[in-house]
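Box 3.1. Reading complex inputs
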Amino acid sequence: MRLFVSEGAPGNLPVLAAAGRARGRAELLISTVGPEECMVPFLTRPKVPVLPCCPLFGLTYNHCFHCGVRNGYFFLLSGWEQDDITNQWLEWEATELQPALSAALYYLAVQGKKGEDVLGPVRRALTHIDHSLSRQNWPFLAGETESLADIVLWGALYPLLQDPAYLPEELGALRSWFQTLSTQEPCQRAAETVLKQQGVLALRPYLQKQPQPSPPDGRAVTNEPEEEELATLSEEEIAMAVTAWEKGVESLPPLQPPQNPVLPVAGERNVLITSALPYVNNVPHLGNIIGCVLSADVFARYSRLRQWNTLYLCGTDEYGTATETKAMEEGLTPQEICDKYHVIHADIYRWFNISFDIFGRTTTPQQTKITQDIFQRLLTRGFVLQDTVEQLRCEQCARFLADRFVEGVCPFCGYEEARGDQCDKCGKLINAIELKKPQCKVCRSCPVVKSSQHLFLDLPKLEKRLEEWLGKTLPGSDWTPNARFIIRSWLRDGLKPRCITRDLKWGTPVPLEGFEDKVFYVWFDATIGYLSITANYTDQWERWWKNPEQVELYQFMAKDNVPFHGLVFPCSALGTEDNYTLVSHLIATEYLNYEDGKFSKSRGVGVFGDMAQDTGIPADIWRFYLLYIRPEGQDSAFSWTDMLLKNNSELLNNLGNFINRAGMFVSKFFGGYVPEMVLTPDDQRLLAHVTLELQHYHQLLEKVRIRDALRSILTISRHGNQYIQVNEPWKRIKGSEADRQRAGTVTGLAVNIAALLSVMLQPYMPTVSATIQAQLQLPAPACSILLTNFLCTLPAGHQIGTVSPLFQKLENDQIESLRQRFGGGQAKVSPKPEVVETVTTAGPQLIQALMDEVTKQGNIVRELKAQKADKNQIAAEVAKLLDLKKQLALAEGKPLETSKGKKKK
Amino acid sequence: MAAAAELTLLEKSLGLSKGNKYSAQGDRQIPVLQTNNGPSLTGLTTIAAHLVKQANKEYLLGSTAEEKAIVQQWLEYRVTQVDKYSNKDDLRTLLKDLNSYLEDKVYLTGYNFTLADILLYYGLHRFIVSIIVIGFFSVIFRMIFFNLS
């Protein structure tokens, strides 16, 4: 018999291992065929080449690298019967493991991804195997002895798991199973034949020819909270969680004293965070705020909780024509305009509690010095070109028109309102004179083309260095997919020289003869603003900005800013040959819309930074909601109704309710002292679940998936609410000694979860976090450090402070009036919103009462229906029932179910 | 056809008298059978093979080693390929493949009727209407004319 295998296909591993064991029963010849050869006549499918292993029987079909069937053949030959459990594993392998695994291998071998990117898709499957092994306490998958299932799964997993980095330590049972099989002779031989000692790279040529597998488990991220599915936990996971918990605050490292200035330290993690510089004379709207400053703030706060050396900076971008024009309008000098608006910006961000280490500005001597230095170095190295430029000049306004003062039809896509520098529709960069039907935005007259001498950055000459740098930087980094995509499409189109000077006065002067009356174009020097702002903060700024080996640079922005940060500035910096720190992780958001449209200052639509404070809604609520809908991966929309819903369901009834109850039980039942805790197996399992969710939170935030990590916080508090609800400490406290002890344990564990939540919440809602920590009297180091384990930070005997509700309910009328106020048309000044009603958090009694009501009302409806009563009467009672259910859901902190029921025809 | 209904139908055609209850797991509604004397079984083909053995009709799983392997292969084909079909183009390719495979055969394994034929028939059942519209007759006609019960 002859066995055909395809060169470098991962599916060969189990086939060969199985064949090795079956040898002796059948004479076997193994031949390798190239991946292009199609051996099975009847399948037309080959998106993928078809790889028969036994053409005698036309035995195979192929989807990616499946293998189970082929081994089945050899095993049957060698007399192994397949029992139910083996069958079950084989089916699981084909339907669950393979899709996940093929995605992981593709990411690893073809795309060069590492770490969580690779492990993520398969983690669930690996945990499943581990749990079955440890639950059954069998050495093998289907029992005491090796079976077909073991060989098939081993072979499938080997290419990935042979690298210990992808064999998670916590999965002990999987580990020892895998190692046992790997030492067997047929398996070893198969591994050598297929991987040829090159590890997973041996599979690369084969995998490259495969279509990119879509990751399994494509659970769409929605704005709605998902039903959490409790993961099954192994005994080990639980034991580890308990050990960590018991160590308590002792395991916290010493708190590092705050430094001023913050500087990088060799051997430590140094995180430099920038947020795109807002243009000075626009008041930022909510979309601007979530797009950069707020997102970067969450990450900066998180980074400090991890005790990484963190410097977070931002500032106003002040040069340019827009400022000159605004100054003319207001009868001030450009400098006065900048001074005025800089303060407005700073105030808005202060109100939003943005934790800048520096909030600077670009109109400083440092800016001039550093920009001119970079320019000089580029000039000496031959990266600056000089050319005559045809430029639009408005004779009516008697000046050259800056790009943003010209509007016209996009030459690429025909969009009517394209700007002079970039088209908002197709995103392509435009040379203003290429615009069709140009118009001066100030006077609406048609500008004429005049020529003027200008300097150009020779991007084509720098392109190779840029690509080299990107090749080193991008793999394994956390650049968001949209940023990667934008950069890739720019490089694909080829770079062109870009003009870096302008006929203006308000800007950084160009230090070159013949250019005395010109300044640098803002996009050349705005990104240098980060450097000069740091230089104004500390004279040792170069320790941050010329230290790529030790500093990790995270830059936050909306996606329209990607080309300047990911391409133009890196080109300038690479051209200087001055070892600048370049962006390691470029984090770009999509756009945030307002209700159903766009934010528009001119039409008065949307909420702008300075107005948010007048709504009577606290900054932390704004922060929470904006982060909850952060346009991460796709555009999202701000909606007043949704904000009300999220405040009332997630904050008030879920998070606030849990934290408040936990604290209240300590005060009311235990005189304000945390009671003794005797953990039962159920409590230990809860500890492990919380730990798991906490680790998930860390994984997400390390990848700057800010919005997703917020879900983990809400999940933990949902677990907490359920835990209290099931254990009913308010009842047990009145019971026997054992009951009282149980009430104590539940209360103690709950209040410790509340303490953990206060720290996890800190990046998102700093004021609320501080309030909780004051209420619980959480010790200082525990407030400022977040480890990956859940610790008991409030031990028995700890005295807490006074507990009070954290959140207020948002009312429909209040939100409705805000919607009208900001909804468009003329921005009217409406009366101050009504005083926000304080709502006592729903207690267990209320919930119980509501549940009874729901049951009662449900019976009424059923009876009426059974009696075939009048339709209107039934409808009225159903409406009552639905209303009660809604109240109950709110009281329990559950998300509201929106019209899940059958639709009426 | 939901997996549970499919398995109930299979029970009937195998002549098993007592009806099992099935639960479903996850988004894809994978069937689960709780057996009396052991752990629960998960997965359509796993449960189907279990039922066949229960009915003492092992021949439906294939009689020679080769045939057993072929049955296994088509059972997997059913759950990994047929069940994941998502659009008309996929379906067209799938049916074309099957059609040309079956051109010189009576049943999937050749000359013997097996569990593979049953499950593939069930799997394709839901497409019958669209199949006729698309115009692929031969596969389905042959399957419809087999007396499955």
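In summary: Chain B touches chain A at residues 30, 38-39, 41-46, 49-50, 65-66, 68-70, 72-73, 76-77, 79-81, 93, 96-97, 100-101 (CB under 8 Å).
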